[in-house]
Amino acid sequence: AQTVTQSQPEMSVQEAETVTLSCTYDTSESDYYLFWYKQPPSRQMILVIRQEAYKQQNATENRFSVNFQKAAKSFSLKISDSQLGDAAMYFCVHSGGGADGLTFGKGTHLIIQP
Amino acid sequence: EAGVAQSPRYKIIEKRQSVAFWCNPISGHATLYWYQQILGQGPKLLIQFQNNGVVDDSQLPKDRFSAERLKGVDSTLKIQPAKLEDSAVYLCASSLGVGGLIYGYTFGSGTRLTVV
């Protein structure tokens, strides 16, 4: 079974600064995907970024980038130039491929200070 | 493109009562998921359908929870009888293919259930 651990229940950052959210995972799969999802108060999960485990290059989406360390089973999210709209719960998510559903971490509540 | 629709948005019931939630996925999406998100935790998969067949229901408490997806389109999740620990947000998601890894997952806004 897969497990995902987010050790930071809450993080706070000043607007326009950079913040990094941590995530570690455990999996028996050789081929898997990792995601960061954002959940604002509206409750709808929004995909932020995804990483295929077989790719060594770290994924980047505009101000969002990941540091994927496969051997260490670490998958952190860096948000650059933080904006007020980035405030939300962020979930680190694993999927083992095929018909598997998603395994979520407990989430990190990100606060953006104006 | 319309999103994943869920109703009701909120529901308050007494313990031992029954409740049902409804989900209408994006048109053409073959795979549908129900997740339970207890306050302060990440969502947990309850059941996964592909078309109208069950792919995975290993974490569904089958003594009180049931789900169906008639005609491979919309789906209902039922709890009977409800317990206090069932208080949670119930999220529905859909995907074009089997697993959302290639095509992505789209989530609804969920139903917040409070059992008193």
Proportion of helical residues of chain B: under 10%
Classification by helices and strands of chain A? mainly beta
Give the count of helical stretches of chain B: 0
Distance separating the two termini of chain A: 41 Å
**Largest sheet data of chain B:** 7 strands, mixed
How far is the first residue's CA from the last residue's CA of chain B? 37 Å
Biggest interface: A-B, 22 and 27 residues
Tell me the fraction of residues in β-strands of chain A, as a range: over 45%
Beta-strand content of chain B: over 45%
**Main beta sheet strand tally, sense and closure of chain A:** 6 strands, mixed
Shape call of chain B: globular
In N-to-C order, the SSE pattern of chain B is: EEEEEEEEEEE
What is the N-to-C order of secondary-structure elements of chain A (H for helix, E for strand)? EEEEEEEEEEEE
Mean pLDDT of chain A: 93
Any overview of this molecule?
The complex is a heterodimer of chains A (114) and B (116). By secondary structure, chain A is mainly β. Chain A is built from no helices and 12 strands. In chain A, the strands form 3 sheets. In chain A, strands 2, 5, 6, 10, 11 and 12 form a 6-stranded mixed β-sheet that branches. In chain A, strands 3-9-8-7 form a 4-stranded antiparallel β-sheet, with no helix packed on it. In chain A, strand 10 and strand 11 (103-104) form a beta hairpin. The radius of gyration of chain A is 14 Å and the shape is globular. The N and C termini of chain A lie far apart (41 Å). The mean pLDDT of chain A is 93. With 116 residues, chain B is mainly beta. In chain B, 0% of the residues lie in helices and 48% in strands. Chain B is built from no helices and 11 strands. Chain B has strands at 5-7, 10-13, 19-24, 31-37, 44-50, 53-56, 65-68, 75-79, 88-95, 105-107, 111-115. In chain B, the strands form 2 sheets. In chain B, strands 2, 4, 5, 6, 9, 10 and 11 form a 7-stranded mixed β-sheet that branches. A 4-stranded antiparallel β-sheet of chain B has the order 1-3-8-7, with no helix packed on it. The radius of gyration of chain B is 13 Å and the shape is globular. Chain B starts with a strand and ends with a strand. The interface between A and B is medium-sized, with 22 and 27 residues.
